[in-house]
């Protein structure tokens, strides 16, 4: 074996590893997935030797290699890492490694590769950062050298790709619609390309969200999985691809990047394009293991919320556009009485805004509705011990607004005129420096004047014909970058300000927007039956403290379903909790239950917002078991929910996932929210003791053998709390 070990770099963390060999002219990926251990030189040489595949019949005359920047120069016939041209030429990039550096740490590290393409004058920096969580972030920047050909290089696509083994044969990604976001869909990975493209100007309510490829039948608790998330708040592309000849010594590839429109990125000498970070993760412990990596990554961020997440009341479903001061003051009184900690005034407060067809863009308080400004409400809210928050939708504009009449050129659209409105609104051209500055000044003034603690930042419509009217030049990329700069500038002026990403519900949920916001609104739907599933799958990427979960009224405003208090309250417990209903119309009994619920949430939120999310694999899709377990296994909270009827009478033993089998646990049914309606003559024998808080059971019985859980009627939920007893 030749001595290649000095040219092999390894990043290792949390049981996963990336291995790259600095081959000429472009380095190749030898391995991504399970940690191979601390490999001696002989093992590294063996890994390189076994990374060389056979030469096939009717094929190129050298072994195909899967490089860090796969192109046709490697005889790669799949999706290339780079597509583009220089005035119609140099469409086949020929890159070579010019420099590299590797900074391994005890948990992770960074490998940086510098490539160049003399024909186009492009220098490419490719950075692999393996975080202590085991999530691998891949960052790419393409820069035209100052002395390059003066013609612009038209960049068509940049796709970050990593290899997959043959056993990765089943794809899971997501789709959805308004009020039904993150609906999972599975399919076998065959030959060819499974690609998901987003052309909505934001990830959208049908976002692929996370593309996972694993061994067939992988579940929440078991199975080996490889996954990618594109951290970008605009147009995206995800793909899983498998060719008959493989990908070097590997079988397929997984990747993603920004979907670029034709002519959008044209690099003149000295200009750069930085692709969105693609986050890759591997797990041999199913989807929960994958979620745990992403949650650990997010919780390690310096800006991750550290303090208790305040219970919110949002005014939308309470008053809609009917902004009457006396009514809102009474609502604030009731909110404080039930334990709300942050009061948020939703849409309808600004000039001309009596419905959704006018006023967007005019970000000053309506003097007709609010003759004294928002001060009377803000002062009253603060006097009750609550923070004050406000709804805004800065990226949108109604044509019926003073702003549109004064600056029609700020409305994004073709030179021939804007297209049809969506929800009566169009898009404000954030890439226009004057429009951008107007928004920053308007938002800054509001936050400063009213000492606003929280902005609910909405983005309702999708972006179509996202071109600048001056030359019909596509600006979807520039729009997202301007958004990022706007939020960053506002946060720099107001470091304590918290921002929620809302986009017609859960239409902009990605790690790009979460670099600069503090939570997301998972869905406009507060129907608990729908929310159980939406929240279950939102957790595949985000920990509960970043996901807004509000309890609404008995009749859902999105589905018209009437649901029980118990299911609504229990469902909203598992996240950043809030209330979305008119408390002034609640009965004393309803207010008492809400008060008990906020108290329970405050008691449990250290666990809910710091523990490990777990989800059980059940064959009956009408039943769900999910929960949060402390990282040291000392405590857990589970929700056992039935959403609909099913043929099953008895479930049999159901293991409670994530517990320490060597420990003993006190098992308690929390009854503050009321008991569910049971579908049985008598409960399981263990349940009365759990109701009396006198039951202790071995962890092995709970998490390995399982409990026969009670049979519930439809749309009911049971809360189980477990606490490890001293040994």
TrEMBL record:
Residues 27-268 form the Glycosyl hydrolase family 36 N-terminal domain. The keyword Disulfide bond does not apply. PROSITE patterns: ALPHA_GALACTOSIDASE. Gene3D superfamilies: Aldolase class I, alpha-galactosidase from lactobacil brevis, Golgi alpha-mannosidase II. The keyword Hydrolase applies. Keywords: Glycosidase, Hydrolase. It comes from the Bacteria. It catalyses: Hydrolysis of terminal, non-reducing alpha-D-galactose residues in alpha-D-galactosides, including galactose oligosaccharides, galactomannans and galactolipids. Residues 628-718 form the Glycosyl hydrolase family 36 C-terminal domain. Pfam families: Glyco_hydro_36C, Glyco_hydro_36N, Melibiase. Its EC number is 3.2.1.22. One of its GO terms (molecular function) is alpha-galactosidase activity. This is alpha-galactosidase. It comes from Streptomyces hokutonensis.
